[in-house]
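Hi support team,

I'm filing this because I wasn't sure whether my run with zinc ion finished correctly. The job status page said complete, but I'd like someone to confirm that the output block is well-formed before I use it downstream. Pasting the exact inputs I used:
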Amino acid sequence: MDILLQGGTMVTPRGSFAGDLRIRGERIAEIGEGLAPEGAQVIPVKDKLIFPGFIDTHTHFDLDAGTFHAADDFATGTRAAIAGGTTVILDFTTQEKGETLMEALRNWHGLADGKCSCDYGFHMSITDWNEAVKKELPLMTREGVTSYKLYMAYDNLKVSDGEIFEILKAVEQEGGIIGVHCENGELIKELSRELLARGETGPSAHPRSRPAELEAEAVYRLLTIAKMAGTPVNIVHLSTKRACEVVRDARAEGQQVFVESCPQYFLLEDSKYELPGFESAKYVLSPPLRGQEDIDCLWEALGAGEIDTIGTDHCSFHFKGQKERGLADFTQIPNGIPGVEHRPALMYTYGVGTGKITREQFCAVLSENPARLFGMYPRKGALLPGSDADLVVWDPEAEGVISAVTQVQHVDYTPYEGMKIRGKPEMVFLRGRLVCREGQVTAPGQGRYVRRRSAGRTV
Ligand code: URP
Ligand code: ZN
Ligand code: ZN
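And here is everything the job wrote out:
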């Protein structure tokens, strides 16, 4: 039987309009005013907004970080995602040294397949570049992996500038897109060593080991490499005003640069590192939280359309027993924070609700742009006949308070504890099926692998 969402407000990046939406099977069948209700299950959605399902293109579920294992696996992470209105996640598959890309991909399918409550795909993090790996790129395209991540920091993950240059060109041949973690890894190591030698061992030292300059320098270096390679590039989790300015300059010169940022860089300030005791370990992530000037710059850039996507970089570790293991040495605190569940409500409340961005811009950075950039549009990220009926019926007036006690994600804290929200998903549909109502996941485990096309190159 069809489902008819009757009398809602459809939101797209190009405008909002009142109307009905018919779901038939897994797809959107039609959108219009006064659609015939006969033979359909009618769901009145007056005063509600209808968004294309939100897409989080930056998660690390089931991450094996050496001595630590991420708190959320694909089952708990995607359940939290769908509870918050996210219908697709893209996680980062990581190639271990000596491994083929195909082996890495198989490993990640092993972790995710059959366990997900939202649809999912993978970026491939290349950490060990060689001729054999280069030959695997067409195979990755056939497997639906059309985006990659490279690290300029972390000894076990980072690739050299020369390798970035080569990989950018090779991925360009496949029409893929590369996201880069931009921080100067060598200087972080030196600064960390100096801080520890001075006895600054607590988590408050973390941001001083990774200052804004090290992100801006890496962004500038990356953009220089991409310019030489003649390819577009995506900067992931951009966090500083300095880096924002570097991007602005490059774009002004005609370079194609995509930018992702994350809710934490808009909503949490570096004063969290002054919290007493070990509490600030909850905010140890990389890049670290920044100052008010950076926050103001990011909001302004988001409002001006300079930030293309908002992901979470969800990488959850429990405070007790995991973060705590770095008590004697901040460099041993596993990096990352949770966020997959709360991204839509946070960005809606503090972005749309405060007038910093419009609901149409919210839709662009959480739904349509990620779908376009990562080869899923218009199957995902669109309110169009024929698109997957991944839909969020959003109650703009619903209020709540974020708390670890009530959250779905499987981690013992949230960095957003106590923050008020106004705007929540009332219903979430995944390919036409109602999977979540008022935050309760009613049909878990329905997620499917999304085989993606080549990246869009436009947002
Ligand atoms: O601290 C973070 N962000 N951990 C996850 C890995 C990364 O750099 O994206
Ligand atoms: Zn990163
Ligand atoms: Zn990440």
